[in-house]
TrEMBL record:
Assigned protein family: Belongs to the short-chain dehydrogenases/reductases (SDR) family.
Class in the EC hierarchy, top level: oxidoreductase
Highest taxon of the lineage: Bacteria
Pfam families reported in the protein's UniProt record: adh_short_C2
Keyword annotations from UniProtKB, A to Z: Oxidoreductase
Signal sequence coordinates: none
Protein name: 3-hydroxybutyrate dehydrogenase
GO terms, molecular function: 3-hydroxybutyrate dehydrogenase activity
Enzyme Commission identifier(s): 1.1.1.30
InterPro entries attached to this UniProt entry: 3-OHbutyrate_DH, NAD(P)-bd_dom_sf, Sc_DH/Rdtase_CS, SDR, SDR_fam
Gene3D superfamilies: NAD(P)-binding Rossmann-like Domain (3.40.50.720)
Organism whose genome encodes this protein: Sphingobium lignivorans
The keyword Glycoprotein is assigned to this record: no
Length: 261
């Protein structure tokens, strides 16, 4: 498979799963739009490495995905550079762990905006180009939490369930246009997002760090192994292949058996 001549936009792609997606697409020759926060020097190094790997062009967007006007500016930047986006990966997300009665309202609003609403805005802006080209791939990084729930994660579980429903809807709308829409739902992947929620979980459950890892994070994964970002990225590559042209509206679990029970 080659993605030469295609353009992939991956949100939240300066680290973790998002960066793994970007590297996988670059290895297949795609142009890239990466987005996220972080150290400017480190991001520039990653951008240059993506260009070197792809033989194409990679640009960086620092736009804030919690704001509709900023998302519009990012998508306009992609359109100006490449004409539009062929592959859209909605991956940006954040997490907060707290009991519902003390869940901070600002954290709820942030999680819904970044994990769910941003995907609506990027999709509505990407779809016209995909329809015109009669080819497109929309991929959501959902979560096992798009299928099942865990306590103390009300906003995240709500956002991920919503993302799964949104994906089914747009898959039906785009089914005759050569555009597919699917979720990839990992279990726990060892990323900064997962690592950073450990202290809050320790506090909420009165546990040690080791207990949180073994008895909470990996408790539901029968394999007792973290999923890797590279495994998730390989599934995204498959969804971009011709072999996956009739896979749409699905939610692919990559969770070590978590949701099998």
């Amino acid at each position: 498979m080659t993605l030469k001549g295609r353009t992939a936009l991956v949100t939240g792609s300066t680290s973790g799963i998002g960066l793994a997606y970007a590297k996988a697409f670059a290895a297949q020759g795609a142009n890239l739009v990466i987005n996220g926060f972080g150290d400017a020097g480190a991001i520039e190094q990653e951008r240059l490495a993506l260009e070197a790997a792809s033989g194409g062009k990679a640009i960086y967007s620092a736009h804030d995905l919690t704001r509709a006007d900023e998302i519009e500016a990012m998508m306009a930047q992609a359109a100006e550079a490449f004409g539009g986006v062929d592959i859209l990966v909605n991956n940006a997300g954040t997490q907060h762990v707290a009991p519902v009665e003390s869940f901070p309202v600002d954290k709820w609003n942030l999680i819904i905006a970044l994990n769910l609403t941003s995907a609506f805005h990027t999709t509505r802006l990407a779809v016209p180009y995909m329809k015109e080209k009669k080819w497109g791939r929309i991929i959501q990084t959902a979560s096992a939490h798009s299928l099942v729930a865990s306590p103390f994660k009300s906003a995240y579980v709500t956002a991920k369930h919503g993302l799964a429903g949104f994906t089914k809807t747009i898959a039906l709308e785009l089914a005759t246009f050569g555009v597919t829409a699917n979720c990839i739902s990992p279990g726990y992947v060892w990323t900064p997002l997962v690592e950073n929620q450990i202290p809050d979980t320790m506090k909420a459950r009165n546990m040690t760090r080791e207990q949180v890892i073994n008895d909470v994070l990996l408790a539901g994964q029968p394999t007792k192994q973290f999923v890797t970002a590279e495994q998730v990225a390989e599934i995204a590559l498959f969804l971009c292949s011709d072999a996956a042209s009739n896979i749409t509206g699905t939610n692919i679990s990559v969770d070590g058996g978590w949701t099998a029970g």
